[in-house]
Predict the 3D structure of the following.
Amino acid sequence: MGRVIIAVDANGADLGPAEVVRAAVLAVAADPELRVLVLGDLSGVDRGSVSDRVELLDAPVSIAKAPEPVPAVRSTPDASIVRTAKLVAAGDADAFVSGGSTGAALAAALFNIKRARGIYRPALAMTIPSPAHPFLLLDAGANVDVRPEHLVQFAHMGSAFASEVLGVARPRVALLSNGTEASKGTSDVLEAHAALASGAGALNFVGNVEGFTVVSGAADVVVTDGFTGNVMVKTMEGSSQAVLGAVRAAAMSSTRSKLGGLLLKPALGAVRAGVDPEAQGGAVLLGLRSLAVVPHGSFTARGFAAAIALAARGVREDLAGRTHAALEAAGALRRAPEPSGVVNTVPGR
């Protein structure tokens, strides 16, 4: 597939919809086969500088800050994120990008795009940058509470994504826990560990991994619940920014330090690029019938452009279809429908 249409909800961006419009312009400039539909409060956007492959759709109603995303999605059909998801469901767009609340994006996707067949819960999969060894983390914020069978399916989803899309041969999958021993963790982690360990080779399960070893290359895919994963992502992002800020301050603290900083600048620049969350483009909601990408709301135009490019690449590579096919081949799809209930999300990522 060459030509791709991506719908983008701009209302959740911390820097405002105009920043997302700038991102769309950057994205289409880099991809001649890309068209972007931007929905949001576009009253302050200079439309004269927008590419003809960026279509601006006024959608001023926002639920990005709604404390209860599920009822907000149900009761606000004209909200920008709901309209964005409906464009994908109707076939008017191939995928959507939203930098607002993860809960609102997930609810809008579930009510309109729907889960893929055999999926218990969609999971937010995020490539965590690390100079030594980047890894895929899921769930990074879609589900607060999970059952053991959900963690097992997340493990298979992450393995399929890493193998089929990221090109990792036989990815090593681990459960995030408070110890490497099989006896460590919550009751759900213990049960999931037992199920994965008895999988008879269908998955390259390497056991538990602790928080301080995830960046050292202990696993290619790290599995946890959405609450823990979301806290972990934000802690890592804040810590990396604090460390880089401290290094920058130390390098500017004296004339001698400044001279040393000039010598180290190329190396430090490479380190900074290696831990830059904007370069990754955000997280992917796995388990839907179509693709959804959730960048952080604090991203600049560069980060949102990377998210749009990630969505376009995922559509062209049939990320949703290939991941689902790998799950089916591994026998990791549920056999009976799960009872319908409340979408259990992390509000306001």
About this structure: The chain has a mean pLDDT of 85. The radius of gyration is 20 Å. Residues 123-277 form a domain with the Isopropylmalate Dehydrogenase fold (CATH 3.40.718.10). The longest helix spans residues 226-251.
